[in-house]
Amino acid sequence: GLISASLSRSARNQRWGMYGVPVSSLNDPFNTTGLPLEREAVAASFDTDNPSWDLFAGESPMCLDLKAEDGIQWLRTSFQGPDQSAYRFPLRLKFEARDSVVVCAWVNDLFIGRYLYDFGPQNNFYIMEGVVKSDAENSLVLAVMTLKDTPLHITLGPWIVDGTSGNLSPSGKPFVLQKAL
Question: Which GO terms describe its molecular function (predicted)?
Answer without folding.
Answer: beta-galactosidase activity
